[in-house]
Amino acid sequence: AAAKVGGILANNTYPAQFIYSNLLVQTNVINACYKFQVKKLLFLGSSCIYPRFASQPMKEEFLLSGKLEPTNQAYAIAKIAGIIMCQSYNREYGTNFISVMPTNLYGPNDHYDLNNSHVLPALIRKIHEAKKHGSKYVEIWGTGTPRREFLYVDQLILISGVSLILNYYNFPFSKIL
């Protein structure tokens, strides 16, 4: 997986960098896979492509059914473009490019810098700093109403590998769930 990623602050501060970098990377990767006849590509979308006000828990059919969260709209639009690009290549060129939308990932090499971190590393950092400095409170952004799911990055790698193998043999992934 290759993408420019970051938390709310980074996405909101650098929208041009997020849309440009992600469109450039995924366009080059997807087209190179077509050009060099890659048999299967697994494109990672993002949970941020779900509508801002999707009912909870979110379902797959909610994708592209409403307005996006403004703070990460540029990143979300880039990821949507990658999904549509994969679908378009499949339709026009007969490729087998699959798109999945993983939940919030965490694991090794996470960024704990509060300017660029995702929710889990940011929470860990804020709680650590509060404890270290004896603070009575920790500032947490948002309303507290959105639900979040977290997945350890190694689990995503395992799930992605199984999904690719099953799809290679044209075995529907849903049959084993």
TrEMBL record:
<dbReference type="InterPro" id="IPR036291">
    <property type="entry name" value="NAD(P)-bd_dom_sf"/>
</dbReference>
<dbReference type="Pfam" id="PF01370">
    <property type="entry name" value="Epimerase"/>
</dbReference>
<dbReference type="GO" id="GO:0050577">
    <property type="term" value="F:GDP-L-fucose synthase activity"/>
</dbReference>
<protein>
    <recommendedName>
        <fullName>NAD-dependent epimerase/dehydratase domain-containing protein</fullName>
    </recommendedName>
</protein>
<feature type="domain" description="NAD-dependent epimerase/dehydratase">
    <location>
        <begin position="2"/>
        <end position="156"/>
    </location>
</feature>
<dbReference type="InterPro" id="IPR001509">
    <property type="entry name" value="Epimerase_deHydtase"/>
</dbReference>
